[in-house]
Request: fold
Amino acid sequence: MKGGRAVTALILALTCVIPGRERNSRTRNPFALAQRYGFRVHRFAASRNDERVWNASRLMRSHHFLIALTLAICLSGGEVCAQAPAQPTDPVKAMVGPWEISNADRDKICIVTLKADAAGGAFKLEFDKAACVPNLPMMKNVVLWKIGADDAVQLLDGKGNALVEFSEVESGMYETERPGEGVFFLQTPAAAGPPQRTADQMVGEWTMVRGGNKPICTLTLSNTATALDDFVLKINPGCDVLVTRFGPTTWQMDRGELLLKSPQGRTWRFAEGDDNKWQRVPETADPVMLVRP
Reply:
């Protein structure tokens, strides 16, 4: 500690920790109190000449010394009273790396990189705020992370307040439910698989094939929205009777699957397979698929 600031801090600290029975009219003067506990302090030394003499042996005998010294360092700006940096334990190390935060439909996704770099009692993380916050507003003030009670993964603000808490529901899968916002998941990108297709990615020309890749119809998925939150579908001339009898007129994406819908309420559901091929589900002995021409 340097200069009069430290001495003044010690005087204030001693004033705070003296037992009530000793705090009488003789000890309310902080300079007299400092002298009583082993200091010889000029009243202006603290701010000017820093003239002080420590009676170390007497001061160390005082059972208030350690408390006074700790408070003094705190008051004089020392780092002893700062929160000790968190140490990366094995559970923390196991979480380090990229993680996906998404809603239940996986149409709102944020990739967060959890790091083992200590920041106070937590750890740093990184994510693209410009890409994440518009879809997941809960991420707006998130800057830190840590593992909380029951191995929950907590996302924190700069002051260490928990903003989001994910509880493990199965190995490598974490979940949180936020009132008015829904359910969100935390999982590794590898476990989550590729992101679900968006409607914009599906717009365009498709060919429907049957059996051994025999074309039976061409159709157009447009981006023209209807009043029911789906999109207009157009069947081109020359389609097989299987398709014309079904007669789809609209389409939409639902939890990563493509739905073709007819005015009679019938629905064909397609799931994505390899090479951007979409197979009708449930699968039958005579499969029907949609492929790009």
Notes: The CA atoms of residues 64 and 173 lie 51 Å apart. The two ends are 77 Å apart (CA to CA). The longest helix spans residues 3-17. The chain is about 20% helix and 35% strand.
